[in-house]
Amino acid sequence: MDNRKDRIHLKLYLTMIFCVVFAIFLTSTILYVNFQSILMKHEYKARLQNMETEKARITKLSNHALSTAYQIMNDVSIMKLFVYDNISSFDESAAFLQMRYYLTSVPDIDSIYVYNKNNNRIYNVTNESELMKEWNPDYDKKDDNFYDSSAVEILNNSDKYLPFIPIPRFYPLNEDSFKCVYSYIIYKTSVKNKERDAVLLNLNKEYLFQGFDNQSDNIKLVIDQNNKVVYSNSDHFMVTEQLQNSFDQEGIMDERDSGYYLTDIDGVKSVVMFTSKDKHNWRYISIVSYGMLLAQVNRMQAISILITAMIAAAGMLTAHLFSRRLSIPIKSMSKDVKKLQRENLKLHKAVKNRKTAELLENGGWDSKGNKMTGQEFLSLIEMECSTVKKIVILCMCPDNYQILLETQGVEALKSYLFAAANILSELLGESTKVFQLDMWNDKNLLFLQWEDNLSAENLREHIRKMQACVSDYYDISISVLVSSPEADSDRLYSLFEQVKETLARSIFFGPEYVVFAAEMEVKSVSHYEYPEQKEKQLLENLMSGKAAEAKKNYEEIITETYQYPIIIYNMVISRLVFAIDKVISTLKKNGNASSFSGYFVLSNLIQETDNITVRNNKFYDLFQHIQSELEKRKSDKQELLVVKINDMIEKEYTEASFSLDYLADSIGISTAYMCRLYKLYTGTTITDRLSFLRMKKARELLLETQLSVNEVAERVGYSNATYFYRVFKKENGVTPKEFRRK
To answer: Which of 64, 183, 364, 535 is most buried, most CB within 10 Å of its CB?
Structure first.
């Protein structure tokens, strides 16, 4: 009864949570869907109001500029420029002074042009200092390549332009740049000619559109009734150019008032907002990126989703905690049962592994003295006995076992081997039965039921794939040894012995090997004869410091053992280690013992975890070290001889009887060998050294004593004064007497 109540309470609680979450989710979804339209309308109204304000401001500024243009037109002093064909210099100066007054008193006026049609003159003043040439307050002929060509075009066709509408245009500052101005043209409307007297008031862009330039979050355009750009704050739309197919313009160019719509501009989805026409028939346009416009709505949508998710998560958490509390007793019982099952399974597996390993090690005999047949052994490992299907034993072991054991521990190694076995089992497929035996810490045995469609090459390919997976995922390498396939179940124990014997030879295989025992050919131990002569040559080469020859002898001795059982190799390597140790002992007695002490320990040469390449390299390093030590001893002896030669030269160079033969006899070596040795170590000859010391001493005696040149020659070891003169002049460039005078 209590359980039924608990279940009903849980169902009601979960139903309430679901209803609350669903209601919040539904409300948030409605807001999510309508956020876009709400924001679009709000943004449109805000931006439209801003553009209407700018439109009113620009209209007001335009009226002010137009009023200024009329004042200039009706100014008495300036009027004389286009009333008289020939104006006096006094009136001309007064007119220019008045024009300059307008130019400086009204802000943002770029320049003022006064055109006299009768004499074809343009009188101008300007604030611009970067024009292509310097313009003085003077007049210029309109047809004489006037620098402002766009102004000339307006003056030539003044009937096409209305006086109260500013005209956007460009004029050149220099050869590389142009300036945008807005011009007001004032002329007498009573004259119907195409070309007539006129005043052109040119305003900077900042005068009308300063507020637009300050807004950089969107594109602002002003277009006239002819679809021509009057103003643009974007390089994409150029002033005075026609808007053709830049974007959908139907909503702008028709007779409707203000509005907005969505369109694509150069592949970017954008919102186009526009005002009604002003008194100039201009429309003000704002183009905003749709993505930027929706940034706010996206934030609100994200917040709504987050709040909904948090509420839903809180509800689910509450329901989970509530239901969990109700189910604690059941879970506790279930946990205890599962724990007992795992322990029972683990114990059963451990007992089974121990029994299986014991049978393999004892050739099928158990601890009670009973012999288990191959068929019974297969039943123990849950494999069927068949005369058709063959059994194969695989031994998997990690390379660099000792390093992995020290860094990661035995449990990690077992996990790697277990993972490798599972990967191989998956690759072989369900048709191949596999039993895994954790027999040793550093190795795993796998029993495979050899299927008819599984060849040795297929098995090798699957093993290689397994090795690649283990190397990629676990960064370790696995080596695999494969026994011969056997259909007779009673030969299982023989297969295990075959695996053990082949495994003992694993030192020859190298890392990440895949070896099939059936493919190996091993000679009988009785056929091997130890090469004593090669060993003798090896030891003689070591004593002579010939590392390369010793390495060759070692390789010939060791390579021959690869064809025999491992016992031959172990015997040979032990004998070589003993012989090499005697060589080292002899070298210690004959020289500096400290150079070999502690450098090599015999156990380092034959560690069990080494492969053949690593072990051989240790011997090669030892051979090289012996050679280096012998060469070093020889080099030290030669250096002592050079020091002794220098000492005798320093002491006896002033003696006239001092010669190379005398020096060689005193040291106890041949003259030729002495000269070569001295040249090798010092880079100079003994004769040059002797001459250097004698000349140095001669210069000192010439400068510091009053001895004659002949006496100086005798003092420094020259018995022949003439020869001394010749040598001294050759070494110093002057004779002894000239040297003393200087």
So the answer is: 183
C-alpha distances in Å from residue 252, one per residue of 44, 46, 273: 15, 19, 9
User: Domains of the chain, with CATH numbers?
Assistant: 362-519 (3.30.70.270), 525-635 (no CATH), 653-741 (1.10.10.60)
Neighbours of 552 (CB within 10 A): 15
Which single residue is written with the structure tokens 């907005």? 260
Between CA 556 and CA 434 the distance in angstroms is 43
* β-strand partners of 274: 259, 285
Cα separation, 201 vs 183, whole angstroms? 5
Q: How far is the C-alpha of 447 from the C-alpha of 434, rounded, in Å?
A: 6
Q: What is the pLDDT of residue 388?
A: 66
Query: Rounded to an integer, what distance in angstroms lies between the CA atom of residue 683 and that of residue 680?
Result: 6
Q: Is the pTM of this model over 0.70?
A: no
Task: State the DSSP code for 377.
Answer: H
- Cβ neighbours of residue 149 under 8 Å, at least 6 residues apart? 171
In contact, 39 and 301? CB cutoff 8 Å:
no
> Which residue carries 């660099």 as its tokens?
400
Give CA–CA dist 37/58, Å, rounded. Answer: 31
Taking a C-beta distance cutoff of 8 angstroms, is the pair 631, 545 a contact? yes
In whole angstroms, what is the distance from residue 396 CA to residue 392 CA? 13
Q: SS3 letters for 198-242?
A: EEEEEEEHHHHHHHHHCCCCCEEEEECCCCEEEEECCCCCCCCCE
Closest Cα to residue 243, out of 219, 226, 258? 226
Distance between CA atoms of residues 670 and 188, nearest Å: 125
Query: In angstroms, rounded to a whole number, what is the distance separating the alpha carbons of residues 366 and 356?
Result: 9
Q: What is the DSSP letter of 490?
A: G
Cβ atoms of 503 and 440 within 8 Å: the answer is: no
CA 198 vs CA 28, 112, 562, 565: distances in Å: 66, 11, 113, 119
Largest CA distance in the chain: 145
- Nearest-10 crossing angle of helices 295-361, 2-74: 140
Please tell me the number of Cα atoms within 13 Å of 571 on its side-chain side.
Answer: 13
Return the closest-CA partner of residue 507 out of 611, 430, 592. Answer: 611
| Residue 662 to residue 666: CA distance in whole angstroms | 6
CA distances from 658 to 106, 359, 640, 650, 654 (A): 110, 91, 21, 11, 8
Long-range Cβ pairs for the range 162-166 (8 Å, 24+)? 163/66, 163/69, 163/187, 163/189, 164/62, 164/66, 164/279, 164/280, 165/224, 165/280, 165/281, 166/62, 166/65, 166/203, 166/208, 166/230, 166/280
List CB contacts of 315: < 8 A, sequence separation 6 or more.
17, 18, 20, 21
Length of the chain: 742
**pLDDT tens digits, one per residue of 101-146:** 888 887 788 888 888 888 888 888 887 665 544 445 455 676 667 7
Indicate whether 242 pLDDT > 80: no
The answer to whether residue 99 scores a pLDDT higher than 50 is yes
| pLDDT score of 305 more than 60 | yes
Contact 171, 178 (CB under 8 A): yes
Phi, psi of 445 (to 5 degrees): -105, 140
Contact residues for 516 (Cβ-Cβ < 8 A; gap 6+): 456, 460, 482, 484
